[in-house]
Each structure stands twice: as C-alpha cells, then as structure tokens.
Amino acid sequence: MAELNQDSGGGKKGGKIRSKKAGGRVDLTAMVDLAFLLITFFMLTTSLNKPNAMDVAMPDKNEDDPEDRLEVADNRTMTLLLGSNNKIEWYMGTYSEPIEGPEIVDYGKDGIRPILLNKLEEVPRLTGDAEKGLIVVIRPSDKSTHRNLVDILDEMNIVEAKQYMIGTISEPEIEVLERDGLYND
User: Fold this and answer.
1) Rg from Cα positions in the chain
2) Helices 146-158 and 112-127: crossing angle, nearest 10°?
3) Which in 21, 115, 168, 184 has the greatest CB count within 10 A?
C-alpha cells in the first residue's frame, strides 16, 4: 500500500513539552491503480501505423535454362536509367541502336509521366496488337537513391504500366550517364 506521510516537524519551543500531533495521511493506492489502468487503456487503444508496401512480382532466377529467355521486340521496350540529381535518362529499343532517345527528364507529372503515358498508347498502335504493350526496364545506377526507385515505381502504378522490371545497369549505360553528367555525387 502506498501512502504519503507528512511530518509535523515539531521542534522544541520553550520549556513546555507538548505532545506530538500525528500528521495527515493520504492513501495513494487508488491513484496508482488509476494510473496503471490509464496506461493500459491508452496502450491497447492506440493504433500502430502499418508500413505501406508495394507488391512487385519478382521472377524466378533460372539461369541454367537458355530456353527460358523471352525475346522482346525493340519497339516495345523502354529503358529508364536512374541517375544522380533526381534525373532519369530514357531510350526506346536497345542501347546500341536506340529507336528514340536517350533523353534526360525529371520525375513526376511534368517529367517522365507524360512520356510514359504517350508510349503506353503508342506501342500497341505501332505493333498492331493491343495485347503487346510497352515493357519498361528500370535500371538504377549507384548514384541514384532509394527514393528515386520508389518514385519511379510509383509512376508505374500511376500510369498503370502492366509490364515493368528492375534490371542491372550495364557499363555502356553508366558511360552514357557519365557523359551526360548524371553519374556524379
């Protein structure tokens, strides 16, 4: 039981002996119980934030089977090179023979988004098959940030791109980023 005792502090005054008076006594048990009840209540009723996660389907790594590779037409692939300074360099087709690009753009609604929307409409029209849409290859460099990768994945969800993947960047692509000033600290 918790209690609060107060000392009356009787010192000697004069020569008369006086009897000590008992100080006031307050029982703190109820207050301690109430404090623990409140702590328990707030702990149980507080909602904890759940982390937001994005579902990204990752392929199986089966490098032993050469027949497992999918050949894709150059006019269907768009490659995004994530560089430094929050910039993206993109091109259509292959690196050695690009159909369009490379071009440097920013992230967001005034940067890569209108280009993605345009290509998502253009590619099925050029291929003549509505089932064969744009395939976006995202290649982050060592100089890009995690935030850049999250931003471009958000853009893929915003424009509703159905086929995109994250790949490793090659040495010639790094040289392109260096040439254009997108591979610096």
Assistant:
1) 34
2) 50
3) 115
Percent helix, strand, coil in the chain (nearest 5)?
A: 35, 20, 45
For residue 126, the surrounding DSSP H or E stretch is: helix 112-127
What pLDDT score was predicted for residue 80? Answer: 93
Contact status, residue 25 vs residue 3, Cβ threshold 8 Å:
yes
Domain boundaries, the chain: 73-179
Residue stretches of the chain with pLDDT short of 50: none
Strand partners for 77:
135
- Confirm if 28 and 4 have CB atoms less than 8 A apart: yes
The predicted model scores a pTM of 0.66
Fold of 73-179: Nucleotidyltransferase; domain 5 (3.30.420)
Instruction: Tally DSSP H helices, then E strands, for the chain.
Output: 4, 7
C-alpha angle 160-166-172 in degrees, rounded to nearest 5: 125
What pLDDT score does 182 carry? 86
φ, ψ for residue 57, nearest 5 deg: -75, 125
